[in-house]
Amino acid sequence: METEYRDELYTKRVRAGKRTYFFDVKATKSDRDFYITITESKRVGEEEYEKHKIFLYKEDFEKFLGALSEVVGFVKEELLSKVEVPEQETS
């Protein structure tokens, strides 16, 4: 049985340089189940876009959020804190 999906119930767009991320909340056909799609969209031509999509189901929200927070925290605390910012020359 193939599940049909409806339009977005809620959407949040994040522009980040050459990429745009879309966080969309959708419902299944029965309107009893909800999920999130995360889409990365990147312009690759004059009017052409490359898109990548992740489907995140409600039973995985907490695990996904926990893992994302952990990874972002690692980058901020362990990697970025060790990157030396070059001193600006003063004239």
Layout of strands and helices, then pairs:
Layout: E1 5-16, E2 19-28, E3 34-43, E4 49-57, H1 61-79
Antiparallel strand pairs: 1-2, 2-3, 3-4
Overview of the structural elements:
By secondary structure, the chain is an alpha+beta fold. It has one domain: Roll (Nuclear Transport Factor 2, Chain: A), CATH 3.10.450.700. 21% of the residues lie in helices and 45% in strands. The chain is built from 1 helix and 4 strands. A 4-stranded antiparallel β-sheet has the order 1-2-3-4, with no helix packed on it. The longest helix has 19 residues. The N and C termini lie far apart (71 Å).
Name of the CATH class: Alpha Beta
Helix-strand category: alpha+beta
Distance between the termini: 71 Å
| Outline type | flat
- Total strands: the figure is 4
The SSE string, one letter per element, is: EEEEH
> Fraction of residues in helices?
10-25%
Under CATH, the topology is which? Nuclear Transport Factor 2, Chain: A
Rg computed from alpha carbons, rounded to a whole number of angstroms: 19 Å
**Major sheet: order of its strands?**
1-2-3-4
Q: Could you list the spans in which at least 5 consecutive residues all have pLDDT below 50? A: none
How many individual domains? 1
Structural features:
single chain, 91 residues, alpha+beta, Nuclear Transport Factor 2, Chain: A, 1 helix, flat
Task: Write a brief structural summary.
Helices cover 21% and strands 45% of the residues. It is an alpha+beta fold and 91 residues long. It has a single domain, classed as Nuclear Transport Factor 2, Chain: A.
